[in-house]
Amino acid sequence: MRKHFEISYCPLTISLIALQRAELPPYLGSTLRGALGQALLQTDKEACTFLYRNGEKKDRDMGNVVVKPYMIIPPEIQTPQTVFGQGEKLDFELLLFGNAEEYVSAVVSALEQLYRFGLGVRRYKFDLSEIINSQTRRIIWRKGQYFKEAVTGADIQRYELQNVTGMVIKICTPLRIRHGGRLVKQISFQTLIRNITNRIMALTERYGGWTDQEEAGRLLALAEKVRTVHEEIKVERMERYSNRTNAKMDFSGLIGTIEYEGDLTPFVPWVYAAQRLHIGRNTTFGMGKIQVYFI
What we know:
- By secondary structure, the chain is of the alpha+beta class.
- Helix content is about 25%, strand content about 35%.
- The protein has 7 helices and 19 strands.
- The strands form 6 sheets. Strands 2, 4, 6, 7, 8, 9 and 10 form a 7-stranded antiparallel β-sheet that branches. Strands 15-18-11-19 form a 4-stranded antiparallel β-sheet, covered by helices on one side.
- It starts with a strand and ends with a strand.
């Protein structure tokens, strides 16, 4: 199988345990990101800067959105809120891309102190229960003990199929793609492929790995010939509270399914990888998660 890109990552499955009954927002991506950021800021400023602020000032001056070297994948959305009873577990996943793997020990130390900061506006107390390598299922942290040998990376999986003429994309968490300052409400196949290839190129350029940019450009041209044959999507209205601005921010995105038709064989490895990488804006919160089905 010919490789068109290569991205390594370290996938951590993190289990927290509620020390009290907690009533949290329906979607926990922002809540978990904020709590981890606070803990990192207090325990390891270098790690916090690398994960949360990498190149931000330089790129902000140039008007660019900076791709971050991590992604939080929270539990599924619960409405109207997510409730945990005392002693109940909260499981989520944290992916560290490329050279961000060097900061696993710093992340573990921050998570050990998470009980000091709490989750949500009311700072509900949660304690670290265990951390597992999602890929190998080896325990990284348990009962106060850190197992460094369990910290190993994996490559984002690529997959190839032949004679693919249809593709169904299920958008699982709100997908946020903006154009001209507005949320895009229709996703053409070219828009989808542009976002996937741009994300892969941005991650590999900044955090290690590589991308065949010539192939990415070829795919973008081929994507023009792919048709949308069915679309059933809606805007999921969401908002989050920003500690940095002390204000609520619009967090809305698209949810639903889209079906495409055409010669889709060349796109399979890239779209398959996007299931793990997510697409669109705010992927650090777990936004833009997709599942793909090939026809």
